Amino acid sequence: MRHTLVGVSDTSSEPPRTVGVRDVAARAGVSRQTVSRVLNDHPEVAAETRERVLAAMAELGYRMNNAARALGTRRSRTLGVLATDALHYGPSRSIAALEASAREAGYWLSAAFADAGDADAVVAAVDHLVMQGVEGIVVVAPHAHTLDALDAVRIGVPVVTLHAADRGARGLSVDQAAGARLAVAALADAGHTSIAHLAGPADWLEAESRAEGFAAELAARGLAAGPVLEGDWTAGSGYAAVEAVRGSGVTAVFVANDQMALGLLGGLHEAGLTVPGDISVVGFDDTPDAAYYWPKLTTVRQDFAELARRAVAAVLAGSAEAPASDLPPVAPVLVTRDSVAPPR
């Protein structure tokens, strides 16, 4: 039999009351204005008072409301990230590095994703971030289409772009052409004079810059322009390029990213060719797995952490009209392993 107790209300389903500034002030024995000053890092709060307020916040489980804080201070402590093609290694690593750099600076990230080829989607993503009250936006934009869409709108907060090679005054990048030249130099220094390039997709700005660096280094050394094959960044496209590489008669290949290099290594092995005995291979990115390919891959390392640090600093120091981004491109580094040897 079920009994009901009259006069006793069941409050188990009621949500717990949110702890507010008034509660913190009462626990710390200070005014609400003092709590507000602590929240906003006001310099005129005594150290002992600040510690007492912070201790009260921790004890009560106080959580700051960024939206409310932004209304009073015009600072949300949040940066926006607009990303396209975020599943690829470079953009995904950059987003992770941006999150770490923003957190180190006392900020959080709010992310929006858009199709690079859809200008309306790019503008809508920017509008969404601005409506969130972000203090600046970092655009992870590997495509020219994304930059074209951004150039057509007035955003109203500082904007910095990544993965746009060297295009635009507000862009920050790893020097892609210099990295390609390092890769070609490693092959030429080993004695190779017939070198192919397995490039990334033609609509990617970084792929274009790497192809330009490939051609420039060959020309600087007086070597004939090598064949350029187009891939799509995937290991599958590297695997599919094996027959073209074999048919070209080259002794070495500069591959525009490590994933395509992985597919190429596997395909060459299946075709009965050895690396680096028959063909030398250099990749780009230095993904965490590259040191465990067979053979271990010589590749070009990009410093995504430094790129993210610069991006966060530029957004925080900049204005909507002129982001502070006067630094030169981040220098890439050649990582020498086992996939390069002199030609037979």
TrEMBL record:
Output the SUPFAM superfamilies linked to this UniProt entry. lambda repressor-like DNA-binding domains, Periplasmic binding protein-like I
The UniProt keywords, alphabetically, are: DNA-binding, Transcription, Transcription regulation
Q: Which Gene3D superfamilies match?
A: 3.40.50.2300, lambda repressor-like DNA-binding domains
**UniProt-listed PROSITE patterns:** HTH_LACI_1, HTH_LACI_2
List the molecular function annotations (GO) for this entry.
DNA-binding transcription factor activity; transcription cis-regulatory region binding
Give yes or no: UniProt keyword Methyltransferase.
no
**What protein name is recorded for this chain?**
Lactose operon repressor
